[in-house]
Design goal:
The structure is a single chain. The chain is α/β, with parallel strands linked by helices and 411 residues long. The protein is built from 14 helices and 19 strands. Strands 2-1-3-7-10-13 form a 6-stranded mixed beta sheet, with helices on both faces. Strands 16-15-17-18-19 form a 5-stranded parallel beta sheet, with helices on both faces. Strand 1, helix 1 (32-45) and strand 2 (57-61) form a beta-alpha-beta unit. The protein is elongated and about 75 Å long.
């Protein structure tokens, strides 16, 4: 896994947009919305945190963010990056769709009632993203603002429905290394609390990048950042706003560093890959296997504070199951194979563990652990699995000791 630090994110570029004031004042939003972009921009170029190159980071506020200027800024962003660039695009403002065609739009400062010709469509935005040569493109959308919790801001046209369609968000995330973080689901509003300087979502985005989402080594990684933001926003909105994540990425790369670490500890700890999940569980998602995993294994692991995921849980929404298998390996410290006769006869399960072992060989690591919870026909166990040291829970006399050995291997 590649470790990015503020001193090495020199190959970086960004476009930051915040629109509170529009030519048509009926579209105006609270000043918090422009503040979102200003504050995010300052944090992005701050050498103590994200350390993006200021000369490659554009900021468009209010009337600067006309449709023509947005298109020009996109062209400049393409010119500023190559395949190794980390690119961030941030937008705070109106977002929604026309009910008649279900087309998503971002609303520039000079929008008129004719959205089709004066707003930025999701189709055009996705085409722009496809032209970026960078292999790391993070798009953050804080859209569909309301004036305050429980009081929704008036929109000037009844044909405009808040919320970018989920289909559009998936399209924006299409392609290797593309990642979308949206402030809310397509049926929800993104909220502004009048007493706060920033929108609810961006408030926690900034906090996370400033260190609240940092791992023990001080690095703020992209998936950890989302896992910090999502429950905070959901709780403060009483469950009415739920940020979402769409991606196809193979690593949990760093976007910021919390400067309160000493330089010595930063150098030492950065050598160890960080994983948002302690274990990826590969199991047969039916019958007795399914019951044992949910009734016995998961409670045992979660009671020790371990973070778990699996391909059935779809850790990267919208991706294929194979993509989730690959991502699961890369974002999990250990891979647990829940062994049973049925598991060994299931083609999908066998493909999954073959993939994991192959990836481990190429990586030079041995992270796959078989867990035997019922007696098997040992003749059915492939040699490639027999060679792995496993956890044997089939003998009641040794079961407690084996459970402790499993937990120790996952810490």
């Amino acid at each position: 896994m590649t470790i990015e630090t503020p001193t090495t994110i020199i190959n970086s570029a960004a476009l930051v947009i915040g629109i509170s004031q529009h030519s048509n004042t009926k579209w105006n939003l609270p000043a918090n919305v422009a503040n979102d972009a200003r504050d995010f921009y300052k944090l992005l170029i701050d050498p103590k945190y994200c350390a993006f190159k200021a000369e490659n980071t554009q900021l468009l506020i209010d009337q600067q963010a006309s449709l023509a200027n947005l298109r020009q800024a996109f062209k400049q962003l393409v010119q500023a990056c190559n395949q190794n660039t980390t690119v961030v695009i941030y937008y705070s403002g109106h977002g929604g769709r026309l009910q008649a065609e279900d087309e998503g739009y971002l609303i520039p400062a000079d929008v008129t009632e004719n959205l089709e010709s004066t707003a930025l469509s999701s189709h055009e935005f996705s085409q722009f993203l496809q032209t970026l040569p960078a292999r790391r493109v993070v798009t953050i959308l804080d859209c569909c603002h309301a004036g305050s919790i429980g009081q929704l801001k008036y929109l000037p046209t009844r044909s405009f429905k808040t919320g970018l369609p989920a289909r559009d968000l998936q399209t924006l995330a299409a392609g290797y290394g593309r990642l979308i973080i949206a402030s809310s689901l397509d049926t929800e509003y993104s909220l502004v609390i009048p007493t706060d300087a920033n929108s609810l979502f961006t408030k926690y985005l900034l906090q996370g990048l400033q260190g609240a989402a940092a791992a023990s080594d001080g690095y703020v990684r992209i998936m950890d950042l989302f896992h910090y933001i999502q429950p905070k926003v959901k709780a403060d909105s009483n469950g009415t706003q739920n940020p979402l994540f769409r991606a196809y990425v193979e690593e949990n790369f760093a976007l910021a560093f919390h400067a309160n670490q000493t330089s010595d500890s930063k150098t030492e700890k950065a050598q160890t890959p960080q994983y948002p999940f302690d274990a990826f569980i590969s199991y047969l998602n039916q019958g007795r296997d399914y019951d044992w995993v949910l009734d016995e294994l998961v409670p045992l692991l979660e009671s020790s504070g371990l973070k778990l995921t699996d391909s059935h849980a779809m850790p990267i929404a919208g991706a294929t199951r194979i993509s989730n298998m690959e991502a699961g390996f890369r974002i999990s410290r250990r891979i647990l194979l829940v062994m049973s006769d049925n598991y060994l006869q299931d083609n999908s399960a066998m493909f999954e563990n073959v993939l994991f072992q192959d990836m481990g060989i190429h990586e030079g690591s041995w992270r796959v652990i078989p867990v035997y919870w019922e007696n098997l026909d040992k003749n059915q166990i492939p040699a490639r699995l027999k060679m792995l040291s496993g956890i044997d829970l089939t003998d009641p006399r040794r079961q407690e000791r084996e459970k402790q050995r499993l937990l120790a291997n996952l810490q």
